[in-house]
Inverse folding.
């Protein structure tokens, strides 16, 4: 390339920040791919949110490089990104009915997208692209496996200790709400409590949630699952 033309190109890159433009285009593609997966799955923090997070992290990192030089990124700027993204991710975590916690994967995805943006801003392109591919594989492949795993039925023993004179039917209704069926039941009444020894079967993913729902009742003293 002609020396004059090369000089003109370098001046144009510096003036128009074409290098930053390339970074932003790349992070839009990477964060957009992850955001699209979240959007299609009907999860919070979808396409636009993930892209904006990636753009912000990339811009901050690029500015940090300009301030600290090509071999130094001020650590406090990156820490501020991580802290801010942590608060944003926490806002997607909800505790629903029955103690079900939702939004943990979306919160983790927000954090990872910010790290991908930092990598793009720091010109670690290969690392950013590789991480995006791994994240998509985890969200798609392991998501399906996890869903199947939580639907596998397990047989467990439950000891439910309730207040004296408590009837069994309300407890069975709670278990039924979570698709848990009672296979065996033995009742041991005492002056200070009544103990129900159970053998139940139900989806592995909801057994712990059903235990919390039972334990939250005012007439239940203790619930243990073996």
């Amino acid at each position: 390339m002609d020396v004059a033309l090369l000089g003109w190109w370098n001046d144009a890159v510096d003036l128009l920040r074409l290098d930053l433009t390339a970074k932003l285009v790349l992070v839009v593609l990477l964060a957009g791919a992850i955001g699209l997966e979240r959007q299609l799955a009907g999860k919070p923090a979808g396409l636009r949110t993930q892209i904006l997070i990636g753009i912000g992290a990339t811009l901050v990192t690029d500015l940090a490089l300009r301030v600290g030089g090509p071999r130094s990124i001020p650590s406090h700027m990156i820490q501020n990104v991580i802290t801010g993204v942590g608060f944003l991710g926490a806002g997607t975590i909800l505790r629903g009915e029955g103690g079900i916690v939702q939004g943990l994967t979306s919160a983790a995805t927000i954090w990872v997208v910010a790290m991908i943006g930092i990598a793009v801003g720091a010109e670690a392109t290969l690392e950013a692209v590789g991480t995006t591919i791994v994240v998509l594989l985890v969200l798609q492949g392991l998501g399906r496996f996890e869903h199947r795993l939580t639907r596998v039925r397990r047989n467990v023993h439950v000891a439910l200790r309730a207040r004296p004179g408590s009837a069994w039917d309300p407890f069975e209704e709670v278990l039924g709400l979570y698709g848990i069926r009672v296979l065996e039941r033995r009742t041991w009444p005492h002056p200070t409590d009544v103990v129900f020894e159970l053998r139940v079967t139900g989806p592995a993913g909801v057994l712990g949630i059903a235990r919390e729902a039972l334990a939250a009742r005012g007439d239940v003293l203790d619930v243990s699952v073996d």
